[in-house]
Amino acid sequence: MTPNPESSGGSAAPSHAGVDARRRAWLRLLGAAPAAAGLATAAAPTPAQARIKTSAHIVIAGSGLGGIAVANRLSKLLDGATITVVDRKEEHNYQPGYTLVATGIWPVSKVRDRNADFLPAGTEWVKEMVTAFDPASNTVTTDSGRQIRYDYLVVATGLHLDYAQIPGMDVAAIGQNGLGSVYASPQAAEATWRAMQAYCARGGQALMTLPATPLKCAGAPLKMTFMLRDRLRQAGTLDKSKVTFESALGNVFGVKVINDNVLDRWKQLGIDVETTQKLVAIDLGAKRATFASPEGDKVEKPYDFIHVVPPMRAPDAIRNSDLSWKEGPFAAGGWLEVDKATLQHRRYPNVFGIGDINGTPRGKTAATVKKSAPLVAHNLVEVIAGRKPDENFDGYTSCPLITREGSAMLIEFDYDGKLTPSLPMVDPLQDSYMAWLMKYRMLKPAYVAVLKGRV
Ligand SMILES: Cc1cc2nc3c(=O)[nH]c(=O)nc-3n(C[C@H](O)[C@H](O)[C@H](O)COP(=O)(O)OP(=O)(O)OC[C@H]3O[C@@H](n4cnc5c(N)ncnc54)[C@H](O)[C@@H]3O)c2cc1C
């Protein structure tokens, strides 16, 4: 049974005074929870194991969560290897915190760190972007024209937010004139909160969009919708407002049991859902968005607030290379052609993929990286040692789905969409203060532990 979204779990912001007995019980449980959920935050050392001696040169393209996590693991497993990380980005962003910033729960400073603080000692860091991958010659080319040869390659470039597919959209305008979009950057998340506050003060029509492409954290658009509705309630403007979720996906979430649960909740909360509406253009000045149905029928809708979720695809350097899928469901987005179990490239055995870039069913969350970074490092070491990759990934994907301030659902599932709850005391389909605390308090330290190769 779907719980009443306004009466179950915790009900108020954790900043409120007087944590009651139930919450104290949750907090005690929480002490035990991270280990059970595989989210241990302490510096759990990698078990002592013989380091493999090698003179191999490993290039890691991308220094986000996946790239740095694998770099740290490889530096612990290998003795004598040269590890080169290629990425211009110097700031490290804790992206799972963006939804907290964009809904007024966290300050933006909590999602901004420095890559230099996480890269392992001895790593060579090329502060440039890869513009071309040539796996036939084991070479990457950077934007300065530099060619870097490798023995082994780890692709960790994340994905490209394709705002350009929406004519009229301007990322620089996020925060103004009722435009929000949590995905683009920490600054965009902060600006989204400004736009959301201005909207909630007056109320009106809100449009929450969802494209049909694979998404990183596909729960984020849902969290933004739940939280917008909660902020309207807090601002006292709910009765003057209408929130409509405009999906191009045919549903609102790819795992049916979660999709149905969310739809039930939204029905009770008065959130309207359109499931065949693709955002195809936006007029930011006039505050009008154009949607197309699968049949090509177009309709223009006015809004007071819009949350734009861009279509997502592989960055050009991967999409245009021989590393991308050439046929099948992942070819259109140019995703990396890896074996979904070993995460080894299907045609180039000296290449592995980690994180959002992988052309696999589901699996674009930080939690996916947490589970798969040890496996990628291990399987790569096996290949370096002349053996076959022998660990298989189940596609673990997870995100705490915020249902309102102080409450969330901890949803976890695998490649097949089967729920894989890791905490016996947390029902994945029931929102709870416990799951909220995981999101609010535990996941950033857990993320940092993943980065450092310690989980
Ligand atoms: C709004 C939002 C909410 C989220 N919420 C959650 C959540 O609640 N739980 C959860 O588990 N996950 C969540 N995620 C998803 C999670 O943050 C990502 O899945 C994770 O960061 C993926 O790591 P990655 O290393 O693959 O990519 P990223 O961390 O994005 O890093 C990719 C890196 O590659 C670099 N790069 C790109 N192209 C090139 C190139 N050509 N050459 C060199 N470098 C390149 C980029 O500069 C970047 O540094 C959320 C994400 C967002 C945006």
Descriptive notes:
The structure is a single chain. The chain is of the alpha/beta class and 455 residues long. The protein folds into 2 domains: 52-160 and 313-384, FAD/NAD(P)-binding domain (3-Layer(bba) Sandwich); 161-310, FAD/NAD(P)-binding domain (3-Layer(bba) Sandwich). It is 27% helix and 21% strand. It has helices spanning 21-36, 65-77, 98-102, 186-202, 220-235, 256-269, 316-319, 366-384, 433-451; strands at residues 52-53, 57-61, 78-79, 82-86, 91-93, 112-114, 124-126, 130-134, 139-142, 147-149, 152-155, 160-161, 179-180, 205-210, 242-247, 272-274, 278-283, 288-292, 298-302, 305-307, 312-313, 351-353, 397-404, 407-413. A 5-stranded parallel β-sheet has the order 7-4-2-11-22, covered by helices on one side. It has a 5-stranded parallel β-sheet with strand order 13-20-14-15-16. A 3-stranded antiparallel β-sheet has the order 8-9-10. Strand 15, helix 6 (256-269) and strand 16 (272-274) form a beta-alpha-beta unit. Helix 2 (65-77) runs parallel beside helix 8 and helix 4 runs parallel beside helix 5 (220-235). The chain is globular and about 65 Å long. The structure holds flavin-adenine dinucleotide. Flavin-adenine dinucleotide binds at residues 61-67, 86-87, 89, 95-96, 98-99, 129-130, 156-158, 182-183, 216-217, 220, 315, 317, 355-357, 364-367, 369, 398-400.
